[in-house]
Amino acid sequence: MQTTVGKDIGIAKQLLESGELVAIPTETVYGLAANAFDARAVAKIFEVKNRPRFDPLILHAKSVDAIKEYVIEIPEWARKLSEAFMPGPMTIVLAKNEMIPDIVTSGLDTVGIRVPHHQLLLELLRQLDFPLAAPSANPFGYVSPTNSQHVYDQLNQKIPYILDGGVCSIGIESTIVGESDGKPVILRLGGTAVEDIWRVIGECDIEIHSTSNPINPGKLEHHYAPNHRLIFGTMDFEGYSPSEIGIISFQKEYPGIPREHQITLSPTGDLKEAAQKIFSAMRILDAMNLAVIFAEHFPDIGLGRAINDRLKRAAAVKSEA
Ligand code: TXA
Ligand code: MG
After folding, report:
1. The domain 4-206 belongs to what CATH superfamily?
2. Quick one: CA torsion of 33, 36, 38, 41, rounded to 10 degrees?
3. Which of 212, 216, 219 to mutate to test the pocket of ligand 1 (most atoms within 8 A of CB)?
4. Is it true that 4-206 and 229-315 share their CATH fold?
5. What is residue 142's DSSP assignment?
6. What is the CATH number of domain 229-315?
7. Gap from CA of 29 to ligand 2 centroid (Å)
8. What is the pLDDT along the chain (321 residues), one digit of tens a residue?
9. What is the DSSP letter of 225?
10. 124 dihedral zone (left: phi>0; alpha: psi -120 to 50; beta)
11. Rounded distance, CA 111 to CA 119, Å?
């Protein structure tokens, strides 16, 4: 199967309507989409990504208003979050109704839903009479794609079409909020800052378990990972020759290490800019002939928390997954 990259919503629409997969741009990362109401189409997502069937997918809706068509009810916290942050990098996990096939939610009675903040994708969603089920468009466990070339590099010949919507403006996946014991709880750190969420619904728990709990593999210890060994937080280069070291830093450059092996995410100290570039930095360094990639620990505020979460998991050894 030849993979085409283009900006044609008509082609994407026609493929999705006939049960095929299309890679879609969003403001967070590129997704690998199928008609959420077509269980056979959704099954192809798991095959192409090599993703375990127990890992639930996120539903992409065309508007905040459309969310109520797919859930039993919208609790107060979810209504507030949807008003404040949607469209945007925010996923809410709610009790699903019978419209949503089990394969989308891996048999869970809840579904994660978001309204993407991306004009081309919203235009496509408005032309479809079904929502899109879509995980990030990378092979399971690898770094998420933030431009169409990233998707092409890994899924060429596996899907018919990549809808090219440019470079993702947020660059890191959506923040996921669900409910536990009747209270909201943050399940994944992402593109909406925790502090902003707390300002809207009050302080709530963050439950990012680094276990291999198969209920929520987005929390798996080893995930979002490049192929190279990645060392997170300690910038101690002893034992390595400078030419075999790659560096991901926030603001500064490290003397003695080749410039071209160093990616400084935001010299001005902007965590949003750093988040936007973190995954492509991992990919760029992963393509180089290095022994190891060192990544700094970022400030634990705003999107810095999500960056640290991804780096921590990229650094975890594979056997823990
Ligand atoms: O920004 C994003 O959220 C991107 C773009 C493409 O929308 N999507 C994304 O999907 O990151 P994915 O499949 O890579 O991550 C989805 C994660 C799952 O691994 C799981 O942790 C969580 O979302 N999830 C989905 N449905 C859930 C549910 N019903 N309960 C708990 N967690 C759920
Ligand atoms: Mg993913």
Report:
1. DHBP synthase (3.90.870.10)
2. 20
3. 216
4. no
5. B
6. 3.40.50.11030
7. 9
8. 999 999 999 999 999 999 999 999 999 999 999 999 999 999 999 999 999 999 999 999 999 999 999 999 999 999 999 999 999 999 999 999 999 999 999 999 999 999 999 999 999 999 999 999 999 999 998 999 999 999 999 999 999 999 999 999 999 999 999 999 999 999 999 999 999 999 999 999 999 865 434 455 555 677 888 899 999 999 999 999 999 999 999 999 999 999 999 999 999 999 999 999 999 999 999 999 999 999 999 999 999 999 999 999 999 876 443
9. B
10. alpha
11. 24
Domain boundaries, the chain: 4-206, 229-315
Q: Judge if the beta carbon of residue 31 lies within 6 A of ligand 1.
A: yes
Which residue, among 119, 133, 123, 118, has the nearest Cα to 19 in the 3D structure?
133
Of residues 29, 50, 27, 109, the one with CA closest to residue 279:
29
pTM: 0.95
For CA atoms 196, 220, 78, 60, the dihedral sign is positive
Near ion ligand 2, which residues have CB within 5 Å? 136
Contact 56, 105 (CB under 8 A): yes
On the question of a cis peptide bond just before residue 87, with omega within 30 degrees of 0, the verdict is yes
